[in-house]
Amino acid sequence: MERRMIAPGFVEDVLACLAAQGIEAAPLLRKVGLPAVVADPITGAEFGALWLAMAEAARDEFFGLGARPMRPGSFALMCQAALHTGTLGHALRRALRFLNVVLDEPQGRLVVQGAEAEVVLSSAAPRSAFAYRTYWLILLGLACWLIGRRIPLRQVEFACPAPAHRVDYRLFFGAPVHFDRKASRLSFDAAYLALPVIRSERALKVFLRGAPANLLVRYRHDAGLAGRLRAELRAAPPGQWPGVEEVAARFGLSPATLRRHLKAEGQGFAAIRDEVRAVAAQRLLRDSDRPIAAIAAELGYSEPGAFHRAFRKWTGLSPGGFRAAAG
To answer: By its UniProt entry, which SMART domains does this protein fall under (predicted)?
Structure first.
């Protein structure tokens, strides 16, 4: 599993939910070993412990963000309902029906249009960005676990204003994020809907013992070809990355066979290259003061304009805007 750090702003969101329900935060923070003021990122395990403590105190696994409370134990029942469904598409539809019954609002539905799948949320009452983000976290965390791999998102939209000074909302999903839209939705490649659910009852027991901290993990098969390809790309500067023919030869495959195996894993050669390049770009912008043009050249772009366009597609921000917000 990947180690994931949680921005302090998300802890502030949780504490705001506590305050709205008249629950004192200090005892819960002490209970999970967090300071009274969380100024630095915390681990997924620490955030998960805080989630459990609040769910117990409020008797609501959805932080009081739905029209009705999601009583403790509801998430486990949803996992049971989605487990024996055959494919991700069936699992998502069953999980959405479960959440619709339990929460009442927001209401979720799966929409497939050509090669794109969307989970669309609607609510008669206004909802915060944190409410939608928590819904996505629960649903997407379960979906990735069920098929044993990360589901790359194409776009995330929120039917509410952007939280002030919260670039972490734009970075969390690894996809362009937009606010003030007519509906809240996230989109991904519809091919993932046909992937099989690979988990067992025994695996579910292990998963639930680690929930909700493991919802913050994007599962994937690192032993598969997609994982090997990522390792190959990370081992070389982007300007020196091998093409599909060279990678296929290193793996002892033909290019067509490599593409076929990657497709079977729900991946694509170009998409993985973009993913690794996007992570490298964010790291260089965040951790160095190098000129943006120099970073663009290091990442293999012939001119800065192409890098700007690609980076805005990945994050919804310009490279300069990302650096300013991250700094």
So the answer is: HTH_ARAC
